Every structure is written in C-alpha cells, then in structure tokens.
C-alpha cells in the first residue's frame, strides 16, 4: 500500500472531530438526567446535613465612640484618640490578655487563644462597630462588655488630666469671685456706716439749728433790753448795765457764729458722707458687673468640663437572635450548584467514554 493510499484512509476518530450540535448536548443531558438530578440532590442533602450538624456561631456587636476632650473657640472638637488608633489597638490584640483573664472558663473546652474582634466604621458616624463571633452568646457579651471597661480604663488618665485642668481654672475664677464678694461686703458695710453717720449728723444738725434759733432769740432780746437802757436817762447804773448787756451780746453773737460754723461743718460732713455712699454704690455696681463676667467664665468652664467624655458606648453589647454561621441555605444552594456542574461533567465524560468504546469495537 503506497503513501497516497494510506493518507486517503479515514482516521479512526474523524467522526468525533466534527462540531457537536446543541441537540447533541441536550440529548446527553436528557439521557443522564436521573444521574444529574440524583447527584445534585445528593450534594445538596449532604451539605444540608453537614450544615445542620455544624456548631452555631452568633455575632455579638457593640458600637463605641471616642470621647470629647475639649471644644475650641471655632467649635472644633478634640477627641481622646482617633478611630484608626482605637481600631488598631483592638484588632492588634492589645486587650486580649486582660480580657481572657476576666473570662469565665466554659464547662466544656478551653478559652479561645485569640478573640479576633472585627472592627468597622459605620457610615456617617464617628464611631466604631466592634463585632465578635462566638458559639457562646454569654461569653461574647462578656467579652465586649469587658472590652468597653478596658477601653475606658485606657483613657481614664487623659480624661482626668483635662478635668483637673478645667477644675483649676474654675477654682481660680471662684477665688476671684470670692474676692469680689468680700469687696462688695466691705463697701456695703462702709455704706451702712456712712448712713448711720448721716443719721447722727442730721440729728446733731437739728439740735444745732434749735440752739441757733435759741441763741438768736436771746441775742435779739439782749439787744432790745440794752437799747431800752440807752434810751432812758443816762445814769451810772444805766451805763454799767448797758455795758454788761453789750458784753453779753458780743459773747452771744460770737457763740452764735461758732454754732453756725458747726452747722455748716455738719452739712459739709453730711454731703461728704452722701458722696461716699454714692461712690460706694457705683463701686458695688462695678463689682457686680465683674461678678457676672466671672460667673459667665465659670459657667463656660463648667460646660467645657462637662463635655469631657471617656469612651462612649453608643450601643451596648447585643447578640443577634439568629446564628450567622453556618449559612444553611447558602451552603445547600452552593452544594446543589456544585453537584449540578459535577454531575453534568460526569455525564459528558461517561458519554465520551461509551462513544469511544463503541468506536473501538466497530474498528476491531
């Protein structure tokens, strides 16, 4: 047999080199439909049984936020730490050893070596959502609750420092307020003393006025008597009497002038005391104004002091009602899909083997 004749002979597998049409695929699928169906259902059933027998895992969550240390004049807030730093501390296991020391050992098994907290930032919140997956809800709740306590202990020193700083400012302003109260009390006491002084001076002025009136009348009477003696026939007795009257009148006038000077002095003292009272009242107004400013400062410091916060628990540790693992429906669905692909592949593989054997049998 020559080379040309050999080349013209059909190859054993030429029939399988042709393109298989879609109907051929469907025929194969229909032929092995029970295998595919049983295989798919078997995979799904096995996945379901395994999922139902797996340990249920629950997710425990809590939401925390960094506390505020101070608010500056522009309204910008200074937090005790950034979310990133707090997240790094939690995820790096900084609190694991302390948390495990606080946990109660379960009746069966040992405590976990690594708690494996998951930390995320909720959208739109300056906060952290901390989650912990565990088969023991009680242990998970305890772990997150203890974590919140440890976080607060971590930043307690910083919070105390800022609180003490504000307390010192508040004490300083309170001392200034105390000095103003003391000054006001002193001025009020001085005003009271001046009022009593004025009262006494007014009483004395009244007495002096009465005395002036009495001396004035006596002086007028003496002058009248002296004039009578002088109008009568002049004798030695009349002259002597007139002389005595004149001396008495001079003394009376001199005393009257002295009393009038005293009255003027009393009026001057009263006016001076009234002016001192007016000045004292103005000083009290100034002190009261300063007090209001200091009280506003104290209230502002108190507000800033009260805004200081440690770690805030926005959502207390809470466990979900349903377990997050195993995901039974998803596992069954995935197993069914995988079983479907495997059985379809197996059907085509078996079909290919059977066709191949048929071809070999025909050639032999």
Task: Give a quick set of tags describing it.
364 residues, 4-stranded antiparallel sheet, Alpha-Beta Plaits, rod-shaped, 2 domains, 9 helices, Helix Hairpins, alpha+beta
Brief sketch in words of this structure:
71% of the residues lie in helices and 9% in strands. By secondary structure, the protein is of the alpha+beta class.
What does it look like?
With 364 residues, this protein is of the alpha+beta class. The chain folds into 2 domains: 58-166 and 310-319, Alpha-Beta Plaits, CATH 3.30.70; 168-307, Helix Hairpins. It is 71% helix and 9% strand. The chain has 9 helices and 6 strands; from the N terminus they run H-H-H-H-E-E-E-H-H-E-E-H-H-E-H. The chain has helices at residues 3-8, 14-17, 22-31, 33-53, 83-91, 96-102, 137-231, 236-307, 328-363; strands at residues 58-65, 68-71, 77-79, 118-120, 128-134, 312-319. The strands form 2 sheets. Strands 4-5-1-6 form a 4-stranded antiparallel sheet, with helices on one face. A two-stranded antiparallel sheet has the order 2-3. Helix 4 (33-53) runs antiparallel to helix 9 (328-363). It starts with a helix and ends with a helix. Mean pLDDT is 83; it is low at 1-19.
Derived structural class = alpha+beta
- CATH classification, class level of the largest domain: Mainly Alpha
Tell the overall outline: rod-shaped
Q: Approximately what portion of the residues adopt beta-strand conformation? A: 5-15%
Please give the alpha-carbon distance between the first and last residues: 20 Å
Please tally the β strands and state the result.
Answer: 6
Going across the major beta sheet, what is the strand order?
4-5-1-6
Count the helices. How many? 9
By CATH's scheme, which homologous superfamily of the largest domain applies? Helix Hairpins
CATH fold topology of the largest domain? Helix Hairpins
In sequence order, what are the helices and strands, one letter per element?
Answer: HHHHEEEHHEEHHEH
Oligomer: single chain
Largest sheet: 4 strands, antiparallel
The tally of structural domains comes to 2
Rounded mean pLDDT score = 83
The stretches of 5 or more residues where confidence is low (pLDDT under 50) are 1-19
Q: Compute the gyration radius: what is it? A: 56 Å
Percent in helix: over 70%
Tell me the CATH architecture of the largest domain: Orthogonal Bundle
């Amino acid at each position: 047999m020559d080379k040309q004749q050999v080349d013209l002979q059909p190859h054993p597998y030429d029939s399988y080199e042709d393109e298989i049409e879609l109907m051929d695929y469907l025929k194969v699928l229909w032929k092995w439909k029970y295998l595919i169906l049983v295989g798919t259902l078997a995979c799904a059933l096995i996945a379901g049984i395994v999922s139902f027998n797996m340990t249920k895992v629950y997710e425990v969550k809590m939401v925390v936020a960094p506390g505020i240390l101070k608010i500056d004049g522009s309204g910008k807030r200074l937090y005790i730490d950034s979310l990133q730093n707090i997240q790094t501390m939690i995820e790096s296991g900084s609190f694991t050893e302390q948390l495990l020391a606080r946990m109660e050992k379960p009746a069966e098994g040992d405590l976990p070596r690594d708690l494996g907290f998951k930390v995320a930032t909720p959208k739109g919140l300056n906060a952290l959502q901390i989650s912990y997956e565990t088969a023991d809800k009680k242990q998970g709740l305890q772990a997150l609750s203890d974590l919140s306590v440890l976080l607060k202990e971590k930043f307690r020193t910083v919070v105390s420092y800022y609180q003490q700083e504000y307390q010192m400012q508040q004490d300083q302003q309170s001392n200034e307020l105390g000095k103003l109260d003391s000054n006001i009390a002193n001025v009020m006491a001085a005003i009271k003393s001046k009022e009593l002084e004025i009262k006494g001076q007014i009483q004395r002025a009244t007495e002096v006025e009465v005395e002036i009136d009495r001396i004035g009348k006596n002086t007028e009477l003496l002058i009248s008597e002296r004039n009578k003696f002088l109008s009568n026939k002049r004798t030695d007795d009349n002259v002597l009497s007139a002389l005595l009257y004149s001396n008495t009148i001079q003394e009376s006038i001199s005393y009257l002038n002295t009393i009038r000077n005293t009255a003027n002095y009393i009026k001057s003292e009263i006016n001076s005391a009234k002016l001192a009272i007016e000045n004292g009242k103005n000083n009290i107004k100034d002190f009261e104004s300063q007090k209001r400013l200091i009280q506003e400062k104290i209230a502002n410091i108190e507000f800033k002091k009260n805004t200081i916060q440690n770690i805030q628990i926005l959502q207390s540790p809470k466990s979900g009602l349903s377990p997050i693992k195993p995901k039974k429906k998803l596992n069954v669905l995935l197993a069914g899909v995988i079983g479907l692909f495997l059985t379809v592949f197996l059907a085509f593989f078996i079909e290919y083997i059977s066709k191949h054997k048929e071809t070999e049998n025909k050639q032999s």
